[in-house]
Amino acid sequence: MWGETMKRKGQHPDRVLTAVKVKSLKEPGRYADGNGLYLIVEPSGAKRWMLRIMVQGRRRDIGLGGVQIVSLAQARERANNLRKVARAGGDPIAEKKAKVGVPTFAEAARQVHAERAPAWSNKKHTDQWINTLVTYAFPALGKRRVDQIDTPDVLNVLSPIWLKKPETARRVKQRIGTVLDWAKAAGFRSGDNIVHGVSKRLPRQPERKRHHATLPYAEVPAFVRTLRANDSNEPTKLAFEFLILTATRTNEVLRAQWSEVKDDVWTISAERMKARREHRVPLPRRCLTILRRAKQFSDGGEYVFCGRSPEKPLSNMAFLMALRRMKLDVTAHGFRSAFRDWAAERTNFPREVCEMALAHTIKDKSEAAYRRGDLLDKRRELMTTWSAFVTSHRKPAGKRGSKSKPRR
Fold first, then answer.
1. What is the pLDDT, as a whole number, of residue 248?
2. pLDDT confidence of 369, banded at 50, 70, 90?
3. I need a surface site. Which of 73, 258, 261, 323 has the fewest CB within 10 A?
4. Of 3.30.420.340, 3.40.50.1000, 1.10.150.130, 3.30.750.24, which CATH number belongs to 105-201?
């Protein structure tokens, strides 16, 4: 459960937050400004204002809007006005609805998208988020007020695609739920979110693939040799091998910039990381060789692996097309799993070192609170060992998962 922060001993907080503090806060939680006004930082990175007050004898939480739209000063002014209404015995929620007007689903969805988009690093995901709602939800829900939407309305959206396009349907369902959660936080809806129980009214979907298609780690060295001989363009091959050697994600590699590389460390900013935390990647010797070769293609551009022009990075389809040419039913992301399997089965490196190499978030809150470093030196040894394995000329072992483990 999120903890309330910034409480002063012996007194209630008052005007604790500053505009700079609001902008810099990243850790999900609820941050008190004073007099019932809170800044809510969502796990997604989105930030919004909430006022908690007593209204006619009942505690009510009233949403005041996202920080992209409502500044700290404006949030304080709105909170003060609503507190005055409540102290006079009125209903600030009802007055807010009457004054502002209840938005339609389309208006609410676009507002949610505008508030959350700055926290998303993947432009494709950002566009898809609103586009799926425009395509599948807006025809039925777009013009309806958010306080008038009920379970049958959501079922009308999901039923036609629930079995035909199961993955899309799940995403649409989740995004409708997010919009209705926002509407409740903003004071336009009350009660439980109707989307949470809608699956019980829909047929069971077929089992979905839960993992990215992965090449067994023993076959990775042969894959890299085949990749180097493949007829894909050289920047794509260099980037793909760099991805495998660093065990990073596709977008992290495709949008890598020369300014992020210093000596033998590649530092990916928090804004580009899935966990919104800066990630330092130690680069083994082969990675440095790849970077020197990639420099010859960049022609002074900012991207390490440039596309058709030095000003643009490689397309996010580059790795997929390379795999298709090699006629392999695996994904680029799956090489992270191959790395993790190799580390677990063929080395004695501690689990936390392997997880940190993948930039995985520590789920144990107590453990995360005590771990401040990023184990860079230990990860350097791990990645050097992985590079030696990947670039070796050994043949795949006849039996995967051998108990024998090489020395580090």
1. 95
2. very low
3. 73
4. 1.10.150.130
Does 133 score more than 90 pLDDT?
yes
The pLDDT of residue 399 is 37
pLDDT in tens, 101-126: 788 999 999 989 988 887 676 777 78
Question: CA–CA separation, 192 vs 45, rounded Å?
Answer: 23
Which of the following CATH numbers is that of domain 217-390: 3.40.1180.10, 1.10.530.10, 1.10.443.10, 1.10.3080.10? 1.10.443.10
Q: What's the rounded mean pLDDT across residues 6-13?
A: 51
- Note the pLDDT tens digit of each residue in 21-43: 998 998 888 999 998 999 998 87
